[in-house]
Amino acid sequence: MKTDKLLVALAGQPNCGKSTVFNALTGASQHVANYPGVTVDKMTGWYKQNGHKVEVVDLPGTYSLTSYSPEERVSRDFILHEKPSVAINVMDASNLKRCLNLTFQLLEMEIPVVLNLNMMDVVEKRGMTIDAEKLSRRLGIPVVPTVMKKGQGKQDLIDAVAAAAGGENGARGARVDYAEMEPFVRRISEKLASQTSLAVNYPVRWAAIKLMEGDSEVQRLMRESHSDPESFLSFVDSQRRDFEIVHRESPEMHIAHCRYQTADDISRFCAQIKADARAPLSDRIDRIVCHRFLGPVVLVAVIWLLYYLSIVQGYNFTNYTWPLLAKIRSLAEALTPQPGFIEIPLMRAFVLWFVDSVNALLNYIPIFFILFSLIAILEDSGYMPRMAFIMDRLFSRYGLHGQSTLPMVLGGIYVGGCAVPGVMSCRGIPDERSRLATILIIPMLNCLAKVPLYVLLINIYFAAYKAWAMFFISTISMLMVLPVSKLLTLTVLKDKETAPFVMEMPPYHLPTLRGVLGRAVERVWLFVRKITTIVAAVAVVIFVLLQFPGISDQRMVYYQSEKDKVAATFIKKIQRTPYADQLGEENLMDLVLYWDAYKGAKMGARGKAAVAEVNAEFKSRNPTFFTIAQPGKDKVAKKVNRAFKKLFKSRKRLLREMRKERIDNSFLGRLGRWLEPATQFAGFNWRVNVALLSAFAAKESSVATLGALYEQEEEGEALEQRMARGESGFTPLHALALMLFMVLYPPCLATSIAVKLQSGSVKWMLFSMGYPMVLGLTVATGIFTCGSALGLSGLQAMAAFYGLALVVTVGMGFIKDKSQYV
Amino acid sequence: MTLDQLRPGSECRIRKLSARDRLGQRLLDMGVFPGLRLKVVRNAPLDDPMEVEIEGCFISLRHEEARFVEVECRENR
């Protein structure tokens, strides 16, 4: 080996087992990053050989190396600019002829290539034979047959890479003979060599071929490196035209044809391949999976299973993981300064808020782990292209793509998804415009966290028609998503790059446990690293917005006096008891904390033995307090117990009042009030505004904040009753407007981060937050104002809106979008 | 005749690709070459896209895209 560190690129067509090779070579030492400017994953890993580090970059799977798709551009630029020492060309050996297309293009780029004939077991199983020796001689490059799934041939591949890296640089491999086009290529090459400095950095013959192909990126390169690019490019154009006139074939077609011919010759020469190379089993499976009637049934079953296993079973799993997170919280409680009777130390409030915010997200990990595993199974098995095949007709009418199916299912096509994995799974959509459209509309689907607000409002305002209202809200999101997506496609996304739908329907594969788990772990880790850290940071901001400026000194004096009153009442009540001299103003708080801790410990204790243990522990901690907390038949102690309970309740009330006042008074509260003049037409008062604003952090917060804003009057009063009482002017129409706004609500923080990751730009993230707000407010205002003007009841307005949405959706489906194939 | 007009089960020979650039390149990458034999395997449940077989490879494409593939059938269904 010449250098200490080798850089190796892994290139191959989709479905060739490239990621298996990558995993086998690099094991656990991998990391994911993005190529600059595009949302294509850059997987890097490394292995050691003879003490040298070999860095492996897994290029995206591509059929070709043109400049038509981001994946191909990225792969090509990597080879041209990073100049890897060796490129491993991974190939599905059973598909030799078609895969050679990429091999030729790699060879034209004049880097040392090692051909890896992977999946040799499939070749054998189908009764085919490939002579690797012959192939190697014919292509002029090392050829290594492997069955990487079982690790067979891995060492041979590593050795071949080392040997190739040590060998002579430059073109050694076979060239495709472009026959009648060769003189054209030569003419352009000569001009390139003599007129530009291109030859220093780029393979000249490759550039000439690309120019004949009409490659836009190489043309751009010319503009940068040629002194007189226009005259040169018009020369290239004339060459292209001349060729087409003389040979009655476009240069790119000719090039493809020559490559195809050469590949055909080579595969005839080196391999015996049966005419029907596809596993007949795949075809038989497809007869059911893609069947006119059974296909959709299978699809629905798969989606149902996905929901059931991840959302339902995943939630069951959180029952086991939540106690762990709860432990972290109680640890934080123990480590932070203890609360006073009415003063909660800022440090404590902050730490607990922070832990709660992060815990709320970490709680999703079991769900995500199951979800990501299932997605990996779907991906590896080859079902995804079938899913796209079935759904494309419907989705493509609205600017989406067959491959938008999975992201939308994850996002919550009916009820109960999560936008984060939904957005994250958008990367598979090859068409940039559809991908962006999908990313932008997923937050409007019904994620789990929106459901509590729906349930709350439906229970209060549509109690008699619960089922209908729930059906309305579950399906209306789809009826809004489709037209909105179409609208976006026709406007802001109009100029985005599209890609042809044409795709391979690869044979089915049995996924490997290792591949599936590896990917699931990797994606969960990505979620934890990227999403959780940023959510934690923003939790701090929201905390400040909710906490400050806080309660004024004047009001604090009032609360202090209230506290004194409450304490005085308690002291007076226990005056004549023997406890009076042991309990004073100064140690009252100790009793409160003791009480809290005791209640908490008892709640956590399971079984009689555990309860007895807790009792014994607290008794030894403070026997006096224990008799108050657990008076038994002691009449005096019972009296004190009653008095204390009252005190405890009063404290709770005071704390709640203070919290409410703090929110009312906070920056967020002021913002809510400040927005009221604008939102009143949608029927939102400032409290609703505050709840909606707090939902930015996480949608669950909306209900929690409403809970804080509508204070309890009696212990245990449900939020439904409180809200109904607190908002006597609120009608079902208000509730409807609010629910529709929630449907169109901007993505929560975690989703926003996912949007940024997947769209690759902050601009799109901001757009994804901005446009739903405008849209949501418009819809809410429309329904509330029109509904009020026409005197519609909530239910009538609901029906009217549903009808309207249905008409718009169907209508939008008929608008033709011609731009794609012009 | 163009590919989008064919019904499932029909077989033909690819005559010419009238698409260039992105779509043309993509079709070529997928092995849709003039001169090769092609079989329409099935249409999707909603009729679009369609699935075809060329030399043992199965490819799905929208009818809109299939319009750019000129074909000739020997037997008229």
Radius of gyration of chain A: 34 Å
Which strand-content bin applies to the residues of chain A? 5-15%
Which class best fits the helix and strand makeup of chain B? Answer: alpha+beta
- Return the string of H and E elements of chain B: EHEEEHE
Q: Could you say what the CATH architecture of chain B is?
A: Roll
Mean of residue pLDDT values of chain A: 84
Gross geometry of chain A: elongated
Largest sheet of chain A: 7 strands, mixed
Instruction: Name the CATH superfamily assignment of chain B.
Output: Ferrous iron transport protein A (FeoA)
CATH C-level class of chain B = Mainly Beta
Average pLDDT of chain B, to the nearest integer?
A: 89
* Rg of chain B (CA only): 11 Å
Distance between the termini of chain A: 51 Å
Given the helix and strand composition of chain A, which structural class is it? Answer: alpha/beta
Query: Got a strand count of chain B?
Result: 5
- Counting H and I runs of at least 4 residues, what is the number of helices of chain A? 36
What do we call the CATH topology of chain B?
SH3 type barrels
- Give the overall form of chain B: globular
Number of domains of chain A: 5
Q: Write down the domain tally of chain B.
A: 1
Poorly predicted tracts of residues of chain A: none
Explain this structure to me?
The complex is a heterodimer of chains A (822) and B (77). Chain A has 822 residues and is α/β, with parallel strands linked by helices. Chain A is built from 36 helices and ten strands. In chain A, the strands form two sheets. In chain A, strands 2-3-4-1-5-6-8 form a seven-stranded mixed β-sheet, sandwiched between helices. The radius of gyration of chain A is 34 Å and the shape is elongated. The model of chain A has no long low-confidence stretch (mean pLDDT 84). Chain B has helices spanning 21-29, 63-66; strands at residues 11-17, 37-43, 50-54, 57-61, 69-72. In chain B, a hairpin with a 6-residue loop joins strand 2 and strand 3 (50-54). A five-stranded antiparallel β-sheet of chain B has the order 4-3-2-1-5. The mean pLDDT of chain B is 89. Chain B has one domain: SH3 type barrels (Roll). At the A-B interface, helix 3, helix 12, helix 13, helix 17 and strand 10 of A face helix 1 and strand 4 of B.
